[in-house]
Amino acid sequence: MSKKESTPTSRELIVKALRTKSAMKQDVFKATTELFAQLKLTLKDVATDLEQEVTQKDERLVVSFTDKGSLACELRVAGDTIIFHMHTNVFKLDQSHSLWKTSYLEEDEMRGYFGVINIYNFLSDSFKFNRERDLGYLVARIFLNKENHFLVQGKRQMGFLYNDLPGNVMDEPRLREVLYSVVNYVLEFDLLAPPYDQVQQVTVSEMNELNGNLQLSTGKRLGFRFHADNADPI
Predict the structure, then answer these.
(1) Cβ neighbours of residue 22 under 8 Å, at least 6 residues apart?
(2) Cα–Cα distances in angstroms (integers) from residue 126 to residues 74, 162, 204, in the given order
(3) What is the 8-class DSSP label of residue 155?
(4) What is the model's pTM?
(5) CB atoms near residue 118 (< 10 Å)
(6) Which SS3 state, helix, strand or coil, does residue 192 take?
(7) DSSP states of 198-232
(8) For 5, 9, 222, 227, which has the most beta carbons within 10 A of its beta carbon?
(9) E strand or H helix at 197, and its extent?
(10) Could you give the CA distance from residue 143 to residue 193 in angstroms, rounded to a whole number?
(11) Dist CA 78 CA 90 (whole Å)
(12) Using one digit for the tens of pLDDT, what is the confidence trace for 37-93?
């Protein structure tokens, strides 16, 4: 066999990559786009369900869904706003991740590429009062591969409830379960006062901004560190 026959040319390698990896990424993007569309429908239903349940007892408890376009939407749950954002790119799972040692990924490396939906938690008042310095937190990330298998990375329960990639196949009931878990986590993630030493001095400029726009930074964990919250996600 000649060298030319045994060694692929650069052109052949490019064509192979386009037909395999690039095509796979298009499949993943399509699946993620479809998942995000379903996520919006499910979130809208979840908002209606929760609002009907809680407003019967207390009309102050607002639960609402807002579509922010093709890549974003938000769910307001009383004092919390949860923002869902779909990334337009496809990512390969970190090579050090333990899932690469499973037969599921060893059999097909292309299963290790994912579309990602990021989920952030903000205070509703941060948007209401236009407090641009306020902090939000990434509470979870949904990863979806070409076969519609998924995993969720996150803190505390969000990091271990949905980490069985080979066994987790995304459908509407599973998506609804994930979304309820996210809402539950956010409601348990409380706003804590920052240490006194961090807020005992305020400049005239900050006070003027505070009077006009409530611009002092606020976040649920501002100035605090918790071992449970800082543990590495699965």
Answers:
(1) none
(2) 14, 30, 22
(3) S
(4) 0.82
(5) 16
(6) coil
(7) HHS---HHHHHHHHHH--S---TTTT---HHHHSP
(8) 222
(9) helix 196-199
(10) 33
(11) 33
(12) 999 999 999 999 999 888 888 888 899 999 999 999 999 999 999 999 999 999 999
Q: What burial letters (b/e) apply to 65-102, b meaning 16+ CB within 10 Å?
A: beeeeeebbbbbbeebbbbbbbbeebeebeeebebeee
Residue count (the chain): 234
In degrees, rounded to 5, the angle at the alpha carbon of residue 47 between the alpha carbons of residues 45 and 53 is 105
- Distance between CA atoms of residues 119 and 77, nearest Å: 14
Helix, strand, or coil (residue 7): coil
Q: Rounded CA gap, 112 and 61, in Å? A: 41
Is 129 in contact with 214 (CB distance < 8 Å)?
Answer: yes
Burial 188-214 (b: 16+ CB within 10 A, else e): ebeeeeeeeeeeeeeeeeeeebeeeeb
Over the stretch 81-93, which tens digit does the pLDDT of each residue have?
Answer: 999 999 999 999 9
**Where is average pLDDT lowest: 106-115, 122-131, 171-180?**
122-131
Radius of gyration in angstroms for the set of CA atoms belonging to the chain, rounded to a whole number: 22
